[in-house]
Write a structure and sequence with these properties.
Family (chain B): Belongs to the VPS35 family.
Number of helices of chain A: 1
Keywords (chain B): Cytoplasm, Endosome, Golgi apparatus, Membrane, Protein transport, Transport
Membrane topology (chain B): Peripheral membrane protein
Order of helices and strands of chain A: HEEEEEEEEEEEEEEEEEEEEEE
Number of domains of chain A: 2
Strand content of chain A: over 45%
Function (chain B): Plays a role in vesicular protein sorting.
Largest sheet of chain A: 7 strands, mixed
Largest interface: A-B, 21 and 22 residues
CATH architecture of the largest domain in chain A: Sandwich
Radius of gyration of chain A: 26 Å
Helix content of chain B: over 70%
Number of strands of chain A: 22
Shape of chain A: elongated
Radius of gyration of chain B: 45 Å
Protein name (chain B): Vacuolar protein sorting-associated protein 35
Strand content of chain B: under 5%
Oligomer: heterodimer
Structural class of chain B: mainly alpha
Helix content of chain A: under 10%
Structural class of chain A: mainly beta
CATH topology of the largest domain in chain A: Immunoglobulin-like
Number of helices of chain B: 38
Shape of chain B: elongated
Number of strands of chain B: 0
Amino acid sequence: MNFLIEAFKPACSISIKFSDGKTRKRVPIKRENGQTLLAPLFRNQENIAGKITIEPHQGKRIEHNGVKVELLGQIEMYLDRGNFYDFTSLVRELDVPGDIYERTTYPFEFSMVEMPYETYNGVNVRLRYVLKVTVSRNYGGSIIEYLNFLVHNYSPPPSINTSIKMEVGIEDCLHIEFEYNKSKYHLKDVIIGKIFFFLVKIKIKNMDIEIRRRESTVTGATNHVETETLAKFELMDGAPVRGESIPVRLFLSPYELTPTHRNINNKFSVKYYLNLVLVDEEGLRYFKQQQITIYRLPLQDT
Amino acid sequence: MIADGVEDEEKWLAAGIAGLQQNAFYMHRALDSNNIRDALKYSAQMLSELRTSRLSPHKYYELYMRAFDELRKLEMFFKEETRRGCSIVDLYELVQHAGNILPRLYLLCTVGSVYIKSKEAPAKDVLKDLVEMCRGIQHPVRGLFLRSYLAQVSRDKLPDIGSEYEGDADTVVDAVEFVLQNFTEMNKLWVRMQHQGPAREKEKREKERSELRDLVGKNLHVLSQIEGIDLDMYKETVLPRVLEQVVNCKDEIAQYYLMDCIIQVFPDEYHLQTLDVLLGAFPQLQPTVDIKTVLSRLMERLSNYAASSADVLPEFLQVEAFSKLNNAIGKVIEAQPDMPILGVITLYSSLLTFTLHVHPDRLDYADQVLGACVKKLSGKEKLEDKKATKQIVALLSAPLDKYNDIVTALKLSNYPRVMEYLDSETNKVMATVIIQSIMKNKTRISTADRVEALFELIKGLIKDLDDAFHDEVDEDDFKEEQNSVARLIQLLHSDDPEEMFKIICTVRKHILGGGPKRLPFTVPPLVFSSLKLVRQLQGQEENPFGEEESTTPKKIFQVLNQTVETLSNIPAPELALQLFLQCAEAANDCDLEPVAYEFFTQAYILYEEEISDSRAQVTAIHLIIGTLQRMHVFGVENRDTLTHKATGYSAKLLKKPDQCRAVYACSHLFWVDDQDNVKDGERVLLCLKRALRIANAAQQMSNAARGSAGSVTLFVEILNKYLYFFEKGNPQITVAAIQSLIELITTEMHSDSSTPDPAADAFFASTLRYMEFQKQKGGAIGEKYEPIKV
C-alpha cells in the first residue's frame, strides 16, 4: 500500500522562503475555507527575494524541463469563476532542463516590483499576489507550488481633506444638518461630527450611522454592485427637539475596512459611504449617504 | 386594562432584571479572569437592558440601581487594570466601540471616572467630553438616568477649590460649567417628557415627572456643595444661568420645583445679596406656577435667617430687602391676573411675617403690606373662600404675635380695613384672637382713641354685622365670646379720670348697639368699670383743678343711669335692678342723695313693673333690703318712703315663708348699728311680730292643706332675729317676749301634728346652746341673758 501512496505523492517538496522572512511583518489573511493564516506583507516596488528549495523524496530523481518562479498579481472574479486576470506577471528561470537528484536551492529576486494594487478579499472579487514555482515535466505533470503574500500600499495624508457638511430634509417634516470633520479617513481614524436638528416633526426613535462598502465589479459587459454594511453605530436614542445637536464619534479601528479602491485594472472598485439613518416610531427609515475615502497610513497593518 | 398594564410592567421588569443578572454573571467571570474584551462585551449587554421603553420611571429606577451596583464593580476593575499598566486612554477609546449608544455612554462615564482619577488628562476635559457625549440620549427617562449617573460618578471628582483635581488648567469655573451644563440638559429632558405621548395620559405623565424631579434637582444640590462658589460667582454665573434655564423652559412643574430648589439649597446670605436677580425671575414664570408657595418659602427662609442673628440685620437693610420683596410681589400679582385671592393673601402674609422679623421697628412697612392687601381685596365681595379667610386671620395675627401688643397693631391704619373683608364668622374669630392677645399680654389700653380703634377691630363681637342673625351660632360659643368682651372691658383702664371717662363713653357708644343678647354681658363690666372710676374720684379731693368740664361722679352717674336703663328695655330687669342698686350704693358713698334716690326709684319701678316672677321677686327684695340697709345718705323722709315701700313689697310676696323672711329682714331697715338716727326699736318689734303672725299663718295653712304642721324653722329664724336685736340693746325686745317665743317653739315641736324636721331641731338646739353660752360668758351680755330660762 505504501508503494501506491508513494506513487501519487509529488516527487519532491518545494519550499519558498523570503530572504527577510524572519523579520518581515506578517498579517492574517482569510482563506477560502475560513481559516486565517499569516502571510508576509509587501509594498509596491519592494524587492522580493528569497530562496526556493527543491528536495526530491527518498533519493528520487526528478527529470524536468526547467524550473521557474513567477510573481503573479491576479484578479479573480467569483461571478466569472475560473477566470484569473493577471495584471502582473514576472518570471525568473531558475534552472535549465535537466535532473535534480538532491536538495537544490535556487535564490531568486524580483527587484522593484510594480504592485500598484492592494490585496483585496471582497464579496465578488479577489485580488491576490502569489509566487508560483513550477518544475516542468513532460510526464507526471508539472510540480507547482504557490505562496501567497500580501501587498498594502500606503498613502500620505491627503493634502486637501475638507469636512463634509450638508443640510438635508423633508419639507415641513425633518430638517437636519450633518457635519463630518473630514472626507478622507485613514483606517484607524475617528469620525468626529455632529448632527444638528433644525426641524423635527416626525417621532424619531433613534439615529444610527452606518459604514457601507460598495463593491462594483465588471464582468464582461455586465456591471455588478454589492453593498455591505460593515458598521452600525447608534448615535442617538430617543427623539430630539429643534435646536438639538448630537455628537458623532466613531472609531474606525474595530471594523474591517480597506482603503478605497478606484477602478482597479478596470475590473472593480471599492467605495465607502457613511450612511446616516433616522428611524421613526413606525420603523420608517430616513437616510442620507455620503461617500468617504479611506486610505492607509504607514504602520497601520493589523 | 390598567391592571394588565401594571402586571405587564412587573413582567418586563422581571425580565429586565433577569437579563441584567445573567450578563452581570458573565461579566464577573470575565472580570475574574481579567478578560477585558469579554468584560466590555457583557457589561454592554447588561447595560442594554436599560434601553427598554416599557418601564415607568419608578420601575426603571429599580433596574437602574441594579446596573449601578454592577458598574461600581466594573469601575473597580478598570482601576485595577490601569494599575496593572493598561492605558486608561486606550480603555476610554475601547468602550466607545460599543455599537449601542446607551451602554456605550454608561461605560464611558464609568471609565471617565477612572480617567479623571488617574489625572492623566485634566478633569475638565474629561468632564466636558462626558457631558457632551451624553447628548446622544434624547429619550427623556433614559437620558435623565444616564446624566444622573454621570452626576453621581463625577460629584467627588469636580475640580473644586481645595479638591485634588484642581489645577492650573482645572478651576472651579470648570466644575460649575460642567454641573450647569448637565443640569440644563437634564432639565430639558425632564420638561420634554411633558410633551411626549398622548394627551390623555397627562396626569400619569405628571406623576412620573414628579418622581423624577429629584434627579434634576440633585444638580443644584451638587452646585450648592461646591466650595469654590463664592458670592461673586454665584451672582455672576450660577444664579443667572440656572434662572435662565428655569425661565426659558416654560414648564410649570419644573419652574415650581426648581425655584423652590434654588431657595432651599443655596445659603440665605446669597439669596439676600441676589434678591434682585432672584425676584426678577418670578414674574417671568408661567402664569400657572404656584409662585405664592415658593415666594412664601423664600420669605420664610429670610425671616428665619433674620431671626437667627441680629448681626445679619444690617445686610437686610443694606439690600433693601423689604422694598424689593414688596415690588416683586406686586409684579407677580400683576403678571398673574388669575392668581386666586388666596395666593395674594398668602404672599402678603409671608411678606408681613418677613418685615415683622426683619424690620420690627418699621410699622409703616407692615401697614404698607396691609394697605397693598386691602387694595387687592377692594372691589371684591366679602371672602367666601375658607382658606383665604384663614390666611387673612394668619396675616392679621402675625403683628399681634410679634409685638405681643395690640397697641402696635392699632397704629396700623390698614388693619381694620383688612378685617372688613372677612365674613362675620371669621371676623369674630379674629376679634377673639385680638382679645386673647390682649388678655395674654395684659396689654394696657389707656386712651379713648385706642379704645375706639380697638372696638372698631372687634366690632364683629360687639354687634351683628350682617342683617341676618345667624341662628346657628352655638350658645356656648356666644357666651364664651361675650365673656371675653366683658373681660376686655374690665381691662381698659387709664389712671387719668378724664381719659378713663372718655374710654367709658367710647365703650358705651360701641356696646349699646350690641342688641338684647349682648347687653347683659357687656353692660355689667362697663358699669363696674365706671363705678371703679367713681370710687377713685371719691377718694380724691373733689375736682382738684376746679375745671368745670372735668369728670365728676355726677356726670358718671348720669351716664350710668342711661346705660343701665337700656338693660331694662331689652328686657333684663333683674340685672338692671342689681346694677341700679350697685349704682345707688356708689352714689351713697359719694353723698349724692338725689342720685341715690333716683337709682332706688329706678330699682323700685323695675320691681313693680318688670319683675313678676315670684322667685325673682324674693331675690330682688332681699337685694333691695340689703342695699337700703347700708344707705346712710338719705334723709328721714326719703328713707321712710323707701323703707315703707320695701316693707310693703315684702308683705306682698306670694309664698308665706318668703313673706315672713322678707318681713323679718325688713326689721334691719329700722335698726342700723352705726347710724344713731336709725334705731327705731318699736318698728323693729312691729316687723318681727308681723313676721311671727305670718309664720303662724304659714303653719296653719300648712295644717289645713296637708294635715300636718309645717316646720318650725321660721320661728327659730325669728327667734334669732329677736336675740340679735336683744343683744343690740333694742329696748322693745324683752326677756318675756323671747321666753314666750321659746315656749311657743317647744310646744310646736312637741305637738302631735308637727312633722319631724331634724334640720329645724338642730337649728333650735344650737340657738339654745348659743344662749346658754352667752349666759356663761358673763359680763354685760351674760347679765342680759341671765333672766332667760332655757
